[in-house]
Design a protein that fits this description.
about 130 residues; alpha+beta; 5 helices; 4 strands; about 15% strand; RWD_dom; RWDD4; RWD domain-containing protein; UBQ-conjugating_enzyme/RWD
């Protein structure tokens, strides 16, 4: 099966599995977001997965750059991304978007155990203040 056929099948499966799930968002036919945790949960985070042309034979692009994650430190984000990358390596060559979202859901507490909310407004003010001197 070609990468395109694999992607079409996975897309259909994702749409079916996550139909009505408010945490799931299809940004395009090759890019998806999933909110891990409930709205208002200080340890909730958003994962974005985008497929390359040759996915699933090559890794997807996984990002935590969404504004939703602005209170999560870069160290915690990097730790989560590293753990997800390990799961990518194990699943390379197979449809894995659902697997990665579920892995993140199942491990949310462990992923966020070192999370201390970052107040981005204070950080921004500090940066702006230090630039003024």
């Amino acid at each position: 099966m070609s990468a395109n056929e694999d992607q079409e099948m996975e897309l259909e499966a994702l749409r079916s599995i996550y139909e009505g799930d408010e945490s799931f968002r299809e940004l395009s036919p090759v890019s998806f977001q999933y909110r891990i945790g409930e709205n208002g949960d200080p340890k909730a985070f958003l994962i974005e997965i985008s497929w390359t042309e040759t996915y699933p034979q090559t890794p997807p692009i996984i990002s935590m750059n969404a504004f939703f994650n602005n209170t999560i430190s870069s160290a915690v984000k990097q730790s989560i991304l590293a753990k997800l990358q390990e799961a990518v390596e194990v699943n390379l060559g197979t449809a894995m978007t659902y697997t990665l979202f579920e892995y993140a859901k199942d491990n949310k507490d462990q992923f966020m155990e070192n999370h201390q909310p970052v107040n981005s407004t204070v950080s921004l003010c500090f940066v702006l203040t230090s630039l003024c001197y």
